[in-house]
Amino acid sequence: MNPLTQFKKIRILPLLIPPALLIIAVLTAVPALATPPIGVTTEIFGVATFADIDAYTKTGDWKANIDTKGASDLHVLRNTIVPGGTFGWHSHPGPSLVIVAAGTATFYLGDDATCTPHVVPTGGTFVDQGHDVHVVRNEGTVNLVTVVVSLIPQGATRRIDEPNPGYCPDIN
Predict the structure, then answer these.
(1) Is 155 left (phi over 0), alpha (psi -120 to 50) or beta?
(2) Does 5 share its domain with 72?
(3) What is the pTM of this model?
(4) Are residue 133 and residue 108 in the same domain, yes or no?
């Protein structure tokens, strides 16, 4: 081997180590940022795919409009969350209608700088518009049970794990 070539390799190697270590640190740190569910059991009632939906109805003062372009997956499920359990910070690629069937749901929105808890008791409901980073927790003493209907693009992942957005550092 040419001594000059060997000298160049020795001088270049130390320059490559710091960037390589930085890349490894970033790649290994990203998965640790997600906040996974804890104490959650999910029962799937059904998943079905619908072609374009163009449904409009009006009855008296009430009206509904569902208008999708492209195929959609509809998910119907029940979640049971033990006391102290959490869904972890996450988002969805489409809207979800949520019924609190038992217990009390407490959720926090990722873009709320005041970290205000939203409390929904048994029999209450809420709508997740989709793409909103949020966490739902069972801060009560009995199991929280939710029934959820989600409409998302066909083949999309229904739940997207998200990092804690930082407004609620102690809430996961």
Answers:
(1) left
(2) no
(3) 0.78
(4) yes
Question: d(Cα 22, Cα 69) in Å, to the nearest integer?
Answer: 42
Neighbouring residues of 131: CB distance < 8 A, sequence distance ≥ 6: 91, 92, 93
pLDDT tens profile 14-55: 555 555 545 555 444 444 468 899 999 999 999 999 999 999
- Note whether 102 and 123 are same-domain residues: yes
Give the domain range for residue 4: 1-33
Residues 158 and 152: their CA atoms lie apart, in Å, by: 7
For 136-164, what is each residue's pLDDT tens digit? 999 999 999 999 999 999 999 999 999 99
Domain presence at residue 168 = no
Q: What is the pLDDT of residue 170?
A: 87
The answer to whether the beta carbons of residues 137 and 70 sit under 8 Å apart is no
